[in-house]
Batch of 3 targets.
Target 1
Amino acid sequence: MQRPEAVVVVTIDLWERLATDLITIIGEGGFHSLYSRSMHLVSATLPWMILSHPWQQTDTRFAELKKSLEGRDVEESGEASIALLTTFVDILAQLIGEHLTTSILHSAWSDDAVDIAGKELQS
């Protein structure tokens, strides 16, 4: 974690990849519902997280998430990123099952995404 901005870059990249894969399966509305619910749950313990919808009036889908994470130190950003992703994945697994969730995550994040994330966080 020598580069604090890497947490934000990696987080947004993971979300973009996941959104792209999931939207093809459950649609924009389904994805946005899951994301909003996850953000709501996480904001109970991290009230500084911005709660509006990721797709409203922005050029990029996760602009407000990026803004929230950039406004914190690297440890807080990392913890928030993990909390949001974990919450989202847990909700998804409850809805469609662990096996299908794992397949979707593997498809979205393939090994190259994990390798890139690891390199970004270490450099």
Target 2
Amino acid sequence: MSMSTINVAIIGCGGISLQNHLPGLALCRDTRVTAVCDSNPTTLEAARQKTGATITSTRYEDIVTRDDIQAVIIATPNLLHPPIALAAIRHGKHVLCEKPLALNVGDAREMATAADHAGVRHMTAFTYRFVPAMRYLGHLIRQGELGQPYHYRSCRLQDWGTRNVGWRQIKQLAGTGELGDMLSHRIDFAQHLIGPMKRIVANVKNLTPLRDGQPNDTDDWVAILAEFIDGATGVLESSKLASGRNESWRSLDYVELNGSQASFEFTTGKWNELQYGKLGGPGMKPLPVPREFWTWPGSPRDPGAGDPMISFRYDQAFEFIDAIRNGRPCVPSFHDGARTQAVMDAAVRSADTRAWVDL
């Protein structure tokens, strides 16, 4: 592709778009938010003012068919991800889509296949892949520092109370609650760091059938017990109802891996530090993340600017745009999103049947 300006459309203009995607796009040279789209006229107007976009519409069909737009970012309710993405792909647009990609793995795989056949770049917004400590942990595992993987565990605990969370508490729009919202990231962590899961057993709970007086039919808590193809075990838990735990990076977001040679601990709140312990050693100790991992390769972001627990997310947009310019696959791709969706579907089946499910 030529090095001319890349015009981007944002479809779904809520908090994620304005907090994560927009600042990230601002880091990308010769990149412009040309169009914004949202079904809510008030939200759309606020986005127009925030972005300066000259093209607006409440209908995504008006946006994805335009020849003057090269890429779209989809941040709508989950139900709408597949039809919007497939329409954009049919019209030759590169697509960055929020997670989870779809309500089922069939739709997610259709999105990935369509994007591959169309030759467009495709990316799943697994934002935490861009945490410096996470990237360094992946590097160390690839270098063999962990040895044979034995155990993976993650725990994501937040205090959301019983407040209304909008479309995310409506199963028809979201598919799942905490499973798709937060545990999807940790499923991606697990398969990125350890490899594919072989089988799982899971449970989900809805402990708040009303949120601010409005019906909630999605899960507030989810846990998965997993076996990986390589023989490692996994335990994953996530909750919106861990009272007193706070939210976002102030809450517990913890991953630990144990292997034949060492153990590593990754906590999102410590963006530039891991905990590390060697086989037979005295215990875990801090392991600083080298500066070369503080930003995504090639990203112009200054890691010393802004809140480092927020600003790492901006590298996601850089990866998307850089992949477009260089005609290479995005990391993570729709295929990563589909692999995570397969585990999520299995978790729902397992919770329904109270049984192990093979993947």
Target 3
Amino acid sequence: MQRLAGGASAEVLAVDANRVLKLFRHGVPRAVAQREAAHARWAHAQGLPVPKPLEIVQQETRTGIVFERCDGPTLFEALRSGTRAPADLATLFFELQQQIHRAPCELLLPLQPALAHRIAAAPGVGDDLKTRALAIAQARSERSVACHGDFHPQNVILWQSSAVVVDWLDLGWADPALDVNRTLLFLLYAHSQMVATDVRDAFVQTYRRLCRQAWSGRTHELARWVLPVAVARLARPGLEAVQRAALTRVAHGEVTPWE
């Protein structure tokens, strides 16, 4: 089978003109594939833009999920190639995330316990900062919505006249401000050198402006979640020194992403 894409935990292979196989790497438990397939089925049942999951398969020691095939570049690839205006892509991106946030979330699990776990595990972060971040992460949220949990341009495929969202493993419910802060910090500090600076800046500025408009009159809710999300990102393995330094400044309030 032709290899179409690959990441740290899985690769995507062409099965035929209508199907692809997301094949998890050796050592990834079958339960991970089962959870992602269940989340993708939930999203598809809600009418969200997601490739339809068809079946779970086993190839020797590796587990895979067969999906409906949706060919197209990722939104990240479109940004990098400059084939579409970054402001237009940012608007599409924002609207996709808002569509997910409008889905019912009663049957989903909360994202905040996993966030709290990452905060507690973050290396090189002082106890006082962790305590403050955990207090926010563990507090009861005034609003709870469905959240993709890993929403960024590499998980959006431009397909036909719109787009689909992939990689639903981290789906759950949370405060929407948590979700958009995860996205914004990814946009600011992950793989930024792989996209032209002016393109990235235009994309981020448009996304940030649309979020501010959506939170008009309550932008303090966005600012509140910066600390726990920044500390949690510091727990991610493989962070480059420049990313760690930038996130540390954000966590300490030296940089304010929403201003």
